[in-house]
Amino acid sequence: MNRTLTGLAAICPLVLLLACGGSDAATAASRVAAASAQAKTDVGMALKPAYTKPSDEELRRRLTSLQYEVTQHGATERAFDNDYFDNHEPGIYVDIVSAEPLFSSADKFDSGTGWPSFSRPLEPDNVVQSTGGMFALMGTEVHSLHAGSHLGHVFTDGPPPTGLRYCIDSASLRFIPAGELAAHGLGDYAKLFRK
Question: From CA 169, how far away is CA 153, in angstroms rounded?
Answer without folding.
Answer: 9
